[in-house]
Amino acid sequence: MMTPRPILSSLRRHKIAAFLIVLEIALAFAIVSNAVYMVIGRLQRIDLRSGIDERGLVLLRLATASKQNGSVASAQTDLATLRAIPGVESASAINTLPLSGSQWSLAYSLRPMRAFSDGVQVPVFFGGPGLLQTLGIRVIQGSAFQPSAYSDLSPKDVFKAFVNARQALITQAFAQRLWPHASAVGKVMYMGETPVLVVGVVSNIIQPYIGADAHDPANYYGVISPFRAGPDLNAWYALRCQPAACARVLKAGAAKLQAMHPTETLNAQESFTHMRQRYFRDDRSMAWLLVSTVIALLGVTAIGIVGLASFWVQQRTRQIGVRRALGARRIDILRYFQTENFLLATAGIALGCAAAIGINVWLMAHYAVPRLPVMYLPLGALLLWGLGQLAVLGPALRAARVAPTVAMRSA
Amino acid sequence: MFTYYLRLALRALRNSPVLTALMVLALAVGIGASMTMLTVLHVLSGDPLPGRSAHLYYPQVDPRPLARGSDGNPEPPGLLTYIDAENLLHQGKAARAALMYQGGDVVQPPSGSALHPFVVNSRLTGRDFFSMFEVPFRYGAPWSAADDAGAAHVAVISQKLDRKLFGGADSVGRMLDFGGHSFRIVGVLAHWRPVPRFYDVDSSRYGEVEDVFIPFNTARALNLGVEGSTNCYGRPGKDLDTSPCGFIQMWVQLDSRPAAAAYRRFLADYSAQQHAAGRFQRPPNVRLDDLMQWLAYNHVVPEDVRMQAWLALGFLLVCVVNTVGLLLAKFLRRSGEIGVRRALGASRRAIFAQLLIEAGMIGAAGALLGLLLTWLGLWAVRQQPSDYARLAHLQPAMLVATLLLALLASLVAGLLPAWRASRIAPALQIKSA
Amino acid sequence: MLDMREIAKVYRTETIETHALRGFTLSVREGEFVAVTGPSGSGKTTFLTIAGLLEDFNSGEYILDGVNVHGMNDDQRSRLRNEKIGFVFQAFNLIPDLNVLDNVEVPLHYRRGIGAAERRKRAIGALERVGLSARMRHYPAELSGGQQQRAAIARALAGSPRLLLADEPTGNLDTAMARGVMELIEELHREGATVVMVTHDPDLAARAERNVHIVDGMATGILEEPRFRPSLRERTGTDVPHGGA
User: Fold this and answer.
1) Which strands, in side-by-side order, build the sheet including C67-68?
2) Are residues B69 and B187 in the same domain?
3) Domain termination site, one of B255, B276, B297
4) I want to staple B367 with a disulfide (CB 3.0 to 4.6 A). Which of B248, B313, B406, C128 is the partner?
5) pLDDT at residue A9 is higher than 90
């Protein structure tokens, strides 16, 4: 409808104002596209699959004075009591949990190694035969540990014994890392110089502590070792409960444990869902902060566009009247200002694209920010175009209301 | 003249209240957002021990075996093994030195107390910890050198724990049941919260200090467990102290540059000697960062916060550009009036000054509103669950900076529009639009 | 061509009701050159805005080139205005941001079915007719008043209108320039254009074929003998001033 050329030649006569709008849109575009990308990155982290059955999992942890109590044997008694609570389907004492933020890890390699740094650092989960059922982990290939494979770990021998496990279950992601083209079951990997037999492959479990890149498959590397643990190793009591009963189970479990151990104290008592939320709280805060910044930024940009567009409309009232007298319909005037804004926004977006990529390259160099996918640029462009059109609508409608008789007034 | 300009500016602002309000709002939002984030950055990246930090150093040696691959970090590990820590403590020449690690255990309240047992974190360290970091005491004093050497069962507790257990009374001389052992309390700290909690970057970096302090030797003798990280570089032995596992932080006080240089040489010599003896496989690989270097090396300020600060600056830039645009619109709208003023004898300089004052007034209003928004923003930050969030308070320096920044931003933003408007040619009539 | 019967136009504000036109009747034939005169406030401008379809009127009938315009909505009037009327304003009303050529093209942008090449051709043709083709890249501010008015006339001609409406076309010009512009209008008329010119200047009015005097919103119908009879009109049988075609 409106061809851009006359609009462009008109803009050439208002270089400063046009340049300011372009600059503002470019800056907003560069910042917004990077920020939106970061927000989406955070949201993807928050939504990461944990690989365990999160519904109906509650956690208790007993703090034991100087680790003199809370051995595996006392843990078995505690677990038996906890299993007796109505609504509890299974219970297990586990050294660490996905997204708990604290992990035990060992380095594994396909060849014997002297330095641990030659292997792949992988978190190790252990917790007796109930672990798989309680967390809801499936055995995909091979089999779970034989009951005879299990041994007890205590603080006294933990350093020596922990590294001496001879069997392991490994997650699918880790199996693929070690043996991309073959089944891992029956293969041997090395922890230092100790050979470790892989007896089975289990469904992926996310690590207790995940890296900056949510998409890294290494987040799902994991090894399960055939050990039993007690509160003296800071083990968690994990209870699988019928989802409706979980709140009650948690309360009852806490009361029972406290009654059984009057000189000790519970330092954790929560659902897994809660722990997960706690783990991602910084990501959530950051996402909120980025979102509010983006909204504020878009608001400020819109204010700028409204201000300059209103000024332009006011300044051009007479020529709008003339155009109307020469036969322009209201919609033609509306479109003129919309097209003008679209052209300015396009220039701003083009400039902003370059800046966005520049900022991203800089962020990549200095922070753990991955490359900005190209699809975010059109997304940002749509956002800014939309914003521009929205902001210019008011002033443009005002322009369209200018009466053609304005042209008749003598100057 | 100035007051006349001021009156003119006021009238001009009153004449276009919507545009004026929009400009003030846009500027205030920019100031508020950026000052909020910069205040957080400022709080988090401050010097925890001003005046002393330049003399405090963190020594590192590299006891790791040679790696087959080259994927290992070339820098020495951040934690010392027990053997190296003891050697460095006894062989190194430093004004003060302390080994330390974090533990955690159950405190058994005194009999008769209504309290349940509870878990607190402990710092297991030497007496120099207190003097080196100038830790303030409310009651008592650090334990003695003899207590360190003799692994005495003594403890210093935090003010918080003293309040909880003893109602804030002078508890020096009383007994603390911690982790199933009994310790005689020799001191109670006054309020102390270094930000960041620099001395241990492996645990909560912006958390509170520990509640219980016990001599390092006592902790090792009682085998009090490690609550922080334990990194083994090779196959562990029977116990932690003989294993190639790092879990100890060490701080030394070196009062002069030569002393620091000498200590660095000592670290290299020590490494060479261990290498020759076959205990270290790698050639000497040492670091000796001072406090602020150590914080920077460990990226203690959360990346999120740094990114926010950049975001804030970008935001401010957008707001300034926005203000430039709006001021331009505002000034050029009055072309007619300006033309007549010029015709009546106002110089370009006078027009420029008048308009810049108008910009400055918008800046002043933006500053006040921006300050309010900063205060609100920091309140919002404090509602976030992060450890550091609760530290985000407006400081006097930042308050002044906020006001100056807003004023400066508006004046910078006003330069171009005021210049442009001052170029308007004198006119004898006010043309209708 | 233009047929107004019993036109009434009332402007209302909260306090005042102004009868700008009442029972105004005027008929202009194809190819005629009519001057509308009258003292200030007589309703000249109101006549012009209604004749030019800039405003609707309250009662009466107005038939422009066979089209009854009463009750048309804004868009329909804009369309008709664009196709049938060429405006020449006292203040020229060129758009300062556009060069002369772009200015002349403005009305063509609002007409359907004209491509860029055709638009350009017509605009250049119109500029050639007013003798301004050498200046078409200039901006209005770079031209004299007379040249600006010529450009404005070219703009009015570019759309090949049925009717030229001129509002004090020489009001902002000095005598020499005014003469040139008047001669141009007369020439256009000789070539067949229908011209209605509003002016307060009796000398100018005297150059038209017929004068209509407005007093208090009514045409008093003072008729004068036309000074000359254009022969072209009879010969060509058209009253369309051609752009460049």
Assistant:
1) C17-28, C2-12, C59-64, C67-68
2) yes
3) B297
4) B406
5) no
User: Which of C54, C95, C111 has the CB atom closest to A319's CB atom?
Assistant: C95
Band of residue A123 on the pLDDT scale cut at 50, 70, 90: very high
Which residues of chain A make contact with C87, given a CB cutoff of 8 A?
Answer: 325-326, 407
- Stated pTM of the model: 0.78
User: Do the Cβ atoms of A2 and A336 come closer than 8 Å?
Assistant: yes
Query: Which residues of chain A have a CB within 8 Å of the CB of C116?
Result: 3
* Chain C and chain B touch, per 3+ beta carbon pairs within 8 A: no
Q: Same structural domain for residues B186 and B275?
A: yes
Q: Is A338 helix (H, G, I), strand (E, B) or coil?
A: helix
Chain B nearest-CA distance from A267, in A, is 7
Chain A positions in Cβ-Cβ contact with residue C107 (cut-off 8 Å): 326-327
d(CA B158, CA B144) in angstroms, rounded, equals: 18
If asked whether residues B227 and B325 sit together in one domain, one would say no
Q: Are residues B278 and B411 in the same domain?
A: no
B395 and B270 within one domain: no
Q: Token digits for B62?
A: 């590299």
User: Residue ranges of the domains in chain A?
Assistant: 5-47+282-410, 65-263
- Indicate the average pLDDT of chain A: 88
Q: How many whole angstroms from its chain centre is CA B184?
A: 34
Name the burial class of residue A5, with classes exposed (0-12), middle (13-18) and buried (19+) by CB atoms within 10 angstroms of its CB: exposed
Distances (CA, A) of B119 to A34, B206, B223: 43, 19, 17
Claim to verify: residue B171 and residue B219 sit in the same structural domain = yes
| Dist. CA A255–CA C18, nearest whole Å | 90
Per-residue model confidence as pLDDT tens digits over C8-66: 999 888 888 888 888 899 999 999 999 999 888 888 888 988 999 988 899 999 999 99
Q: Which residue has the higher pLDDT, C55 or B216?
A: B216
Residue B255 distance to chain A (closest CA, Å): 33
What residue numbers bound the domain in which B29 lies?
Answer: 2-45+302-432
CA distance A30 to B53: 39
Tell me the count of A-B CB pairs closer than 8 A: 191
Q: How far is B213 from chain A (nearest CA, A)?
A: 15
**Is A259 an interface residue toward C (CB < 8 Å)?**
no
Sign of the dihedral through C-alpha A401, A405, A407, A409: negative
Are B197 and B59 found together in one domain? Answer: yes
Which DSSP symbol is given to B125? Answer: E
Verify whether the Cβ–Cβ distance B333 to A21 is below 8 Å: no
Band of pLDDT at residue B304, cut at 50, 70 and 90: confident
ipTM: 0.82
Q: For A130, phi and psi rounded to 5 degrees?
A: -80, -10
Query: Which residues on C lie below 8 Å from A324 (Cβ)?
Result: 54, 78
Find all residues with CB under 8 Å of C21, minimum gap 6, and list them.
C7, C8, C9, C43, C46, C47, C50, C57, C217, C218
Interface of A with B in 148-167 (CB under 8 A): 155, 157, 159-160, 162-163
Q: If 0-12 CB within 10 Å is exposed, 13-18 middle and 19+ buried, where does residue B14 land?
A: exposed
Are B171 and B40 members of one domain? Answer: no
Number of separate domains in chain B = 2
Longest dimension (CA), chain C: 54
Please give the Cα distance from A168 to A199 (Å, whole number).
Answer: 6
Asked if A27's CB is within 8 angstroms of B317's CB, the reply is yes
- Smallest Cβ–Cβ distance between B318 and the set A28, A118, A315 belongs to A28
Q: Give the list of residues 6+ apart from residue A248 with CB closer than 8 angstroms, or none.
A: A87
Domain boundary among B278, B297, B316: B297
Q: Would you call A155 and B118 a contact, using CB atoms and an 8 Å cutoff?
A: no
CB within 8 Å of chain B, chain A residues 212-251 = none
Set of chain C residues whose Cβ sits within 8 Å of the Cβ of A10: 95, 97-98
